[in-house]
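If you are new to this repository, start here. Below is one unmodified record pulled from the training split, so you can see the exact layout before writing a loader.
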Amino acid sequence: MNKLKQRWGITSNFQLIIIFIVFAVTGSSSAWLSKPFCEWLGVTKEDFGGWFTLIRLIIIFPIYQVLLVAIGTLFGQFQFFWKFEKKMLKSMGLGFLFKD
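And here is the target side for that same chain:
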């Protein structure tokens, strides 16, 4: 855990626990929200077959990104999750979305 705390620039175990909770809540929430969102878009397993899982993951991704920062903010960790979000999106080639 100390390597993770050092890598993320965290000093307390409490903050690490809060961050883990935010990741858990965000993952569960985005997966839960993707079902009604897919239904709203008309994306069903019957229509897309084997592609359904891939399409649903693509739909979950932006939901997860927004929820991560929002839920992180509710838990008082906006700074950490905003930096985390920017770093992740930059590594995916989406760094043009952020001004430095």
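Two things worth knowing about this chain: Residues 45 and 53 are 8 Å apart (CA to CA). The chain has five helices and no strands.
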